[in-house]
């Protein structure tokens, strides 16, 4: 799990991501609703008009609104631009468990301990339908992302799917007079605008959560019987497909992941579990010492998840999204969809070279992390976190350009990190003994060197040299003479970028950039609030870098500024004149034209 943001607060019962802005709403057991910016890590606003716990909260997709529902039986609709509650919807007779805006119509669905689900029109501020049928508390009710359906979960041990097609026809389509007359009749005689389509029975205890799959006809549910169940539905019936067992206590929330084929669930057993939705096996478990989990939220468009627990909440990602790449003169080598690809800057064309081995299926976060290339031997080293750190060495056949079909036999080995140090030699870090093994292209050890400082990663630092990273410093080590050429105290360094003449180096940590010369003599340090993501040197010795939100520059004297704002994070690979070449998180190459006269 890659934690991006964490808060400490009262128990978090409800969470909702904003679709466009880096915001998340957290509703607390104390009655407060907090609005956080998870990129900056700051509290933007707080709203406290509810009396008692607020269990449900949801952002509107396009309007500056959010809705909340609490133990005071009230549903409140708020405008976050005006920082206030616009109105309150009354009607429920007991605690409100969840509230959600419809993705298209001006509707809100709410679930309550009064055993009903209500659908409200927030424009006319009226209740347009009451769905009765559950005979215990309704713990959750959600709209289907595309169809006219609602799914609900209740402590009566059932999950129900409701058809609200008639309600849509009645309230959304323009009705002529005759229709209106017949509608008045049905209203008068208690018309049915929402009917139960399926009742899903299978849980042995009360069901706490149920939600639809974003695209497939599937439902996932979690209950006090500690089980997560997957259900499939068609036009006429719904049936249980499988049960996921592993939680040791009540399952409080469960969802399908929007982008990957996985299910995420959390529970009062203080754990979050990730499951393979196809194989239906457990992939990962994340535990907390003392905090029971209550709620999950998935970002509608990004790979972010959030979980609320007894003492706050976390925003996290399951996998890194940074593509592994290496630049060699006019070519960029990178990994995408299990293939090694090459992109030529001069022609802006890309080719797929060779397929690379895929790690085992029960592995999240096991994809390639770094890539090192030897141009003379046309060899590439791909490192990943498989087996606690391992590398694969591929020799690219000359005729493979554009074919990319012949599976290569890779030479493999374990090691913290591996990097080429000469045309036919590469260094592998052996963390347990704190030494570097120099190997040839047959994967045979040629030489061993004990490192001068406790190292957890190595980077290229010119032929025959290594840059060794420790917790609080970096060291340049000469493998030939086994001497230290330079040392510099730094924050924890994640990426190292050398200038083309190898005279300058930029050391990138999460929130700072340290610029030094080739002997690690310090030149300047920059600090950033928003996380630093990548960088490259231009021809004039200016370091251009990206944060999550901006492309920025750093002059040799330490002056810096913004060049451009980004909508999505990108990773700079090379700069040619006024063109910045970058890779995005989908592994697409994007040239960005900038005006270099600005700096």
Automatic annotation (TrEMBL):
PROSITE patterns linked to this entry: WD_REPEATS_1, WD_REPEATS_2, WD_REPEATS_REGION
Q: To which species is this protein native?
A: Nicotiana tabacum (Common tobacco)
Q: Main subcellular localization, coarse class? A: membrane
Q: Coiled-coil regions in this chain?
A: none
Family matches, as PANTHER family: COATOMER, COATOMER SUBUNIT ALPHA
Query: Where's it found, cell-wise?
Result: Cytoplasmic vesicle, COPI-coated vesicle membrane; Golgi apparatus membrane
Membrane-topology descriptor = Peripheral membrane protein
**CDD domains referenced in this protein's UniProt entry, alphabetically:** Coatomer_WDAD_alpha, WD40
Q: Name one GO biological process term.
A: endoplasmic reticulum to Golgi vesicle-mediated transport
From the UniProt record, report the name of the gene that encodes this protein: LOC107801629
Quaternary organization: Oligomeric complex that consists of at least the alpha, beta, beta', gamma, delta, epsilon and zeta subunits.
**Per its record, how is this protein called by name?**
Coatomer subunit alpha-1
Q: Where is the signal peptide?
A: none
């Amino acid at each position: 799990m890659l934690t991006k943001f964490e808060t400490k607060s009262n128990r978090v019962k409800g969470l909702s991501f904003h679709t466009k802005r880096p915001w998340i709403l957290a509703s607390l057991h104390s009655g407060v609703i907090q609005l956080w910016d998870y990129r900056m890590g700051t509290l933007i606003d707080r709203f406290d008009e509810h009396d008692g716990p607020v269990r449900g909260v949801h952002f509107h997709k396009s309007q500056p609104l959010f809705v909340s529902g609490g133990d005071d039986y009230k549903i409140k609709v708020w405008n976050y631009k005006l920082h206030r509650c616009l109105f309150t919807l009354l009607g429920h007779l007991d605690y409100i468990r969840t509230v959600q805006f419809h993705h298209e119509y001006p509707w809100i669905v709410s679930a309550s301990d009064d055993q009903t689900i209500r659908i409200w029109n927030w424009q006319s501020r009226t209740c347009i339908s009451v769905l009765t049928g559950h005979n215990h508390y309704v713990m959750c009710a959600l709209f289907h992302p595309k169809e006219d359906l609602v799914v609900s979960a209740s402590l009566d041990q059932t999950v129900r799917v409701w058809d609200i097609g008639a309600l849509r026809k009645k309230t959304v389509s323009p009705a002529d007079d005759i229709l209106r007359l017949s509608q008045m009749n049905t209203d008068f005689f208690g018309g049915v605008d929402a009917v139960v389509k399926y009742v899903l029975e299978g849980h042995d205890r009360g069901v706490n959560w149920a939600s639809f799959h974003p695209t497939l006809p599937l439902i996932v549910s979690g209950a006090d019987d500690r089980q997560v169940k997957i259900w499939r539905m068609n036009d006429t019936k719904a049936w249980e497909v499988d049960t996921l067992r592993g939680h040791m206590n009540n399952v409080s929330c469960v969802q399908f992941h929007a982008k990957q084929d996985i299910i995420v669930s959390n529970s009062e057993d203080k754990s979050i579990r990730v499951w393979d939705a196809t194989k239906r096996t457990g992939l990962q478990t994340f535990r907390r010492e003392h905090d029971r989990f209550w709620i999950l939220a998935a970002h509608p468009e990004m790979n972010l998840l959030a979980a609320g627990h007894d003492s706050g909440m976390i925003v996290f990602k399951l996998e890194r999204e940074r593509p592994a790449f290496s630049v060699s003169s006019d070519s960029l080598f990178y990994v995408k969809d299990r293939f090694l690809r090459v992109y030529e800057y001069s022609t802006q064309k890309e080719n797929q070279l060779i397929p690379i081995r895929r790690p085992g299926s029960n592995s999240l976060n096991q994809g390639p992390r770094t890539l090192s290339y030897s141009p003379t031997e046309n060899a590439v080293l791909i490192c990943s976190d498989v087996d606690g750190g391992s590398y694969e060495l591929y020799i690219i056949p000359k005729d493979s350009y554009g074919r990319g079909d012949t599976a290569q036999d890779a030479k493999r080995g374990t090691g913290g990190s591996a990097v080429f140090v000469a045309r036919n030699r590469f260094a592998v870090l052996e963390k347990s003994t704190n030494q570097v093994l120099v190997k040839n292209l047959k994967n045979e050890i040629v030489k061993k060197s004990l490192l001068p400082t406790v190292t957890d990663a190595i980077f290229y630092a010119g032929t025959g040299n290594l840059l060794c990273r420790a917790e609080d410093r970096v060291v340049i080590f000469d493998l030939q003479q086994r001497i230290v050429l330079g040392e510099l105290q730094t924050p924890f360094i994640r990426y190292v970028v050398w200038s083309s003449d190898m005279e300058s180096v930029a050391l990138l940590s999460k929130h700072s950039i340290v610029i030094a010369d080739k002997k690690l003599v310090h030149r300047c340090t920059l600090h950033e609030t928003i996380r630093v993501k990548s960088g490259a040197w231009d021809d004039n010795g200016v370091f251009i870098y990206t944060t999550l939100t901006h492309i920025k520059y750093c002059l040799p004297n330490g002056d810096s500024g913004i060049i451009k704002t980004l909508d999505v994070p990108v990773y700079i690979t090379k700069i040619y004149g006024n063109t910045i070449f970058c890779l995005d998180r989908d592994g697409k190459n994007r040239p960005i034209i900038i005006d270099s006269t600005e700096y």
